Amino acid sequence: MKKTGPKVELAALRRSLKKLHDHFVRSHLGPPSLQPPTTDEILDVAAYVVLVHGALENFIESLALWVVGHSVANWTKEKRTTRCTSSLLLYQAIPNDGGPIPTVFDNIRLALDLAKDRVSKTVAENNGITPVHLRNLFLPLGLNVPSDPVLTASLELLVRMRHQWAHQYRFGAAIVIRSAQDVQTTVSDCVTLVQRLSAEAAAMRP
Predict the structure, then answer these.
(1) In a domain, 53, yes or no
(2) Structural domain contains residue 119
(3) Model confidence over 6-55: pLDDT tens digits?
(4) Is 1 within the bounds of a domain?
(5) Under DSSP, is residue 182 helix (H, G, I), strand (E, B) or coil?
(6) How far apart are CA 169 and CA 47, in angstroms?
(7) Which range marks the domain in which residue 101 is found?
(8) pTM of the full predicted structure?
(9) Are the beta carbons of 44 and 26 closer than 8 angstroms?
(10) CA dihedral in degrees (153, 154, 159, 164; nearest 10)?
(11) Which of 104, 91, 178, 95 shows the shortest CA–CA distance to 137?
(12) Does any domain span residue 170?
């Protein structure tokens, strides 16, 4: 059976990002220069940013789905609750359809199933990795999103660069040009942020 979970997904993300780094960025790294990036470097950095953004978005969405699935399984299979379970239930009102009164176990199971459906819908409709997107995905799951200002600023910069290249400046925003060296640091900060988020998910306990 294929292993899943935060550590496995994080390792896969790191491998994917390394391939992108080696293909698009590595050749442009070297001694510091006062010269502006070349056209080739600008285009390679643009492609790198767009693909990294996509990889990070896939990772955080997969992580959210793993967390909610893990919480539901903890209850339905082990009858154990986690902080995630409690948080999901706080975000989920249990409907009263006038039917038979369920057992406590089934009452919680039903609420978790409804919450799981809601989270799955949120993930399916998610379209970004800004701090706001991350909070919308993970706060209902009982996971804190890292708030380190340096890491958050790097994430927002990556999003802004991806946005400008994906939409070809059609919104009239100022063009953000970064060298390969600069974007390497930005992506490293973003990986640190999702690594901390992944670690918190992996550390969930009853």
Answers:
(1) yes
(2) yes
(3) 999 999 999 999 999 999 999 999 887 778 889 999 999 999 999 999 99
(4) no
(5) helix
(6) 15
(7) 6-202
(8) 0.81
(9) no
(10) 100
(11) 91
(12) yes
